[in-house]
Recover the amino acids of this structure.
């Protein structure tokens, strides 16, 4: 039950079960599960139904909803597609979707937090986020009753709402910069004693949690899709879909061909799009003016072994640059056709699908899985109690930057421990 190895995609060596990096090279690690067939545990709720393909030894009670996959009629009719399936991560009671953070980040957090709990080393988890990830980890950490440090840019503060009363052991730090500067600060904090980073794209629990989108999709479609569409920031979701597809091919019951990855970013702030297409990055003050700034990551895991570039190469994939205007129009079309609100990032994926249809890259009868990575926010805010997480500490991007602890560093760390101690 839930047994696995963690292997480096570069050197091929087996790594410790909770490792985030290989000591020999910079490649991503990947889980190898002893169970080679996709098994659903009907006695377990939500994403835990796929327990045998999650890198945990047990489930995390009170956390772990899964997406809902359904065959589209509305937007499929608009686009002239016969076999369009939608994976919806969000709040949509009529469809049975109960992800109250309204984001597919809800798939990453529970297995990552459970894996953290299983380490039993009494460390404090540090998570950087542009908003959606913070909500998911706040709910999972509250369910697990573990301390959590959320590091966010100021633009994310109004997104820090959750539908359950947050744990007292959550500290929110706002870094006066963008998401990348929040990531950098979180990494420096995680390097200090008593703290540990969740690892981002390097954490196999995050990727395998997101891979549930593909697992749930094939159960509805009865086969692997020919095309997979998703909007990306770091591209980790694209890697997760690719890795899940490899496992499903090894299963043998769902087809022998990898789905073509169709990944999309919000131009002009689209590093992966420019890297993949060889285009020149347009100058600008990213992420300012983006339709959804959660899609901007200056340092994605692109060229590393097992990263985004390899996933695109192996699947003969494509990357789309979607303008604000295109995303805005696609969001309106989708919401009217499917009768549910979606987040702006998901609209970027819809716009990419529209482009693929117009260009003939996908055809009428092709089997397509569209990942709507967030939706139902309006419904959730109308129907559920909401709790806002408040900023506890504001810091400059350069905080904790000295190699040796300085008096100001010690003051900041003391303030963090005081906040956590005061609330515990």
């Amino acid at each position: 039950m839930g047994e696995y190895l963690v292997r480096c995609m570069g050197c091929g060596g087996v790594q410790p079960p909770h490792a985030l990096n290989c000591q020999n090279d910079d490649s991503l690690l990947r889980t190898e599960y002893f169970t080679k067939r996709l098994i659903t545990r009907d006695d377990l709720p939500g994403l835990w139904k796929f327990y045998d393909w999650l890198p945990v030894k047990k489930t995390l009670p009170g956390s772990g909803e899964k997406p809902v996959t359904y065959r589209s009629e509305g937007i499929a009719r608009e686009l002239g597609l016969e076999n369009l399936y939608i994976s919806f991560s969000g709040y949509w009671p009529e469809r049975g979707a109960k992800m109250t953070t309204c984001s597919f980040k809800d798939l990453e957090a529970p297995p990552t937090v459970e894996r953290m709990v299983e380490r039993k080393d009494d460390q404090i988890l540090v998570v950087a986020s542009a908003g959606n990830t913070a909500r998911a980890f706040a709910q999972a950490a509250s369910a697990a009753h573990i301390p959590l440090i959320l590091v966010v840019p100021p633009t994310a503060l109004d997104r820090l709402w959750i539908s359950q009363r947050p744990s007292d052991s959550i500290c929110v730090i706002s870094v006066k910069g963008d998401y990348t500067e929040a990531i950098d600060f979180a990494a420096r904090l995680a390097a200090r004693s008593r703290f540990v980073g969740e690892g981002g794209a390097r954490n196999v629990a995050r990727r395998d949690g997101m891979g549930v989108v593909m697992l749930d999709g094939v159960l509805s479609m009865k086969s692997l899709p020919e095309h997979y569409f998703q909007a990306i920031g770091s591209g980790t979701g694209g890697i997760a879909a690719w890795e899940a597809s490899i496992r499903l091919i090894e299963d043998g019951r769902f087809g022998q061909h990898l789905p073509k990855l169709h990944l999309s970013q919000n131009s002009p702030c689209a590093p992966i799009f420019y890297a993949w297409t060889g285009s020149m990055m347009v100058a600008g003050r990213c992420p300012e003016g983006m339709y959804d700034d959660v899609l901007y990551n200056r340092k994605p895991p692109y060229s590393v072994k097992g990263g985004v570039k390899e996933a695109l190469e192996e699947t003969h994939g494509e990357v789309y640059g979607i303008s604000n205007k295109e995303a805005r129009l696609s969001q309106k079309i989708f919401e009217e056709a499917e009768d549910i609100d979606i987040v702006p990032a998901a609209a970027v994926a819809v716009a990419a699908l529209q482009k693929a249809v117009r260009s003939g890259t996908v055809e009428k009868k092709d089997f397509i899985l569209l990942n709507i990575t967030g939706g139902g926010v309006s419904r959730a805010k109308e129907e559920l109690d909401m709790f806002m997480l408040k900023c506890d500490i504001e810091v400059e991007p350069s905080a904790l930057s000295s190699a040796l602890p300085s008096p100001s560093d010690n003051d900041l760390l003391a303030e963090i421990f005081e906040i956590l101690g005061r609330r515990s």
Remarks:
- The mean pLDDT is 94.
- Residues 275 and 281 are 8 Å apart (CA to CA).
